[in-house]
Specification:
Structural class: mainly alpha
Strand content: under 5%
Largest sheet: none
Number of strands: 0
């Protein structure tokens, strides 16, 4: 990586960190915690009770959790924004697909190293939080 490219990445990271509002991030984390428990419950329930493939169970849980997450963030975390419901939902769906991809890649990679799927899920979900907050704040609920 060139020095110019490295400097560009550092500038982008500083900009992303500067856009974090502590109270809003706390609300986002609370909503995310509720959504994470939704996803986790579905993951474990589908894997342990229905013997569903772990990646499929993770994706199903992610979709349900993402839907709840959008609605809670729209009315609680980012309540003051003027995001149109339909356009906001489309932007949310697009950014959530990217989030699902990030989450799935990390989840699969960690399991391939032998991590128990519950630990792999927790780490993947925690790492995906960075993308989710940035996308929600800068793309979905901007305004």
């Amino acid at each position: 990586m060139s020095d110019a490219s490295s400097g560009k990445h550092q500038k982008g990271l500083r900009r992303a960190v500067a856009n974090i509002h502590p109270a809003q991030f706390l609300r986002f984390a609370v909503v995310g915690g509720i959504a994470a428990m939704t996803q986790f419950s579905m993951l474990v329930g589908l894997v342990e009770l229905a013997h569903t493939n772990k990646l499929v169970a993770n994706a199903v849980g992610f979709v349900f959790a993402a839907t709840a997450n959008y609605l809670m963030n729209r009315y609680f975390t980012f309540a003051g924004t003027r995001s149109h419901m339909g356009y906001g939902m489309l932007r949310f769906a697009a950014t959530s697909l990217v989030g699902l991809g990030i989450n799935t890649l990390i989840f699969q990679a960690l399991m391939s190293f032998g991590l128990w799927y519950v630990v792999a899920w927790a780490l993947a979900t925690g790492l995906t939080l960075i993308w989710n907050y940035s996308a929600a704040r800068l793309i979905v609920f901007r305004g």
